[in-house]
């Protein structure tokens, strides 16, 4: 699975859509849970990539600590007065062995899927 480090706590899984990742996780005997709610944040930068990276970092901080995955729902970038403003929206997800959230292990690697 191709991965790219986003921060100390998060890894970006690239080139895999959510249904394929879900099938891989279920095949391994684990569960890919779709959580309610979203985290949307803005980022400002001199390039579209820089603005998106900042927005993504802020959005990942918004994902509750007990969720160990997030799906990139949308990424919009606009230019304003020579700067770029990115808006990133993430959907929280949970990858775990158990079917109940009562058994969440907070020590797992955090992942976000590429869109």
Which keywords apply here?
single chain; 115 residues; alpha/beta; seven-stranded mixed β-sheet; 2 helices; 7 strands; 42% strand
Terminal residue distance: 15 Å
Q: Which structural class should the secondary elements be placed in?
A: alpha/beta
The fraction of residues assigned to DSSP E strands is 35-45%
Shape: elongated
Number of domains: 1
How helix-rich are the residues, as a percent range? 10-25%
Write down the Rg: 15 Å
Count of strand segments: 7
Major beta sheet summary: 7 strands, mixed
Give the count of helical stretches.
2
- Average pLDDT, rounded to a whole number, is 84
Order of helices and strands: EEHEEHEEE
Unreliable stretches, pLDDT < 50, 5 or more residues? 103-109
Write a structural description.
Helix content is 22%, strand content 42%. By secondary structure, it is an alpha/beta fold. The chain has one domain (3-113). Strands 1, 2, 3, 4, 5, 6 and 7 form a seven-stranded mixed β-sheet that branches. A hairpin with a 4-residue loop joins strand 1 and strand 2. The chain is elongated and about 50 Å long. The two termini are 15 Å apart. 21% of the residues are buried.
Secondary-structure map:
Elements: E1 3-5, E2 10-13, H1 18-27, E3 31-34, E4 39-45, H2 48-62, E5 69-80, E6 83-96, E7 110-113
Parallel strand pairs: 2-7, 5-7
Antiparallel strand pairs: 1-2, 3-6, 4-6, 5-6
């Amino acid at each position: 699975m191709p991965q790219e480090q986003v921060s100390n706590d998060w890894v970006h899984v690239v080139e895999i859509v959510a249904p394929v990742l879900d099938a891989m996780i279920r095949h391994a005997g684990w569960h890919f849970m779709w959580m309610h709610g979203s985290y949307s944040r803005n980022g400002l930068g001199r390039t579209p990539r820089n603005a998106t990276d900042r927005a993504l970092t802020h959005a990942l901080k918004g994902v509750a600590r007990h969720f160990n995955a997030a799906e990139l729902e949308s990424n919009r970038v606009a230019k304003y007065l020579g700067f770029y403003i990115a808006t990133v929206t993430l959907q929280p997800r949970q990858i775990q062995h158990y079917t109940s959230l009562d058994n969440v292990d907070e020590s797992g690697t955090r992942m976000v899927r590429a869109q």
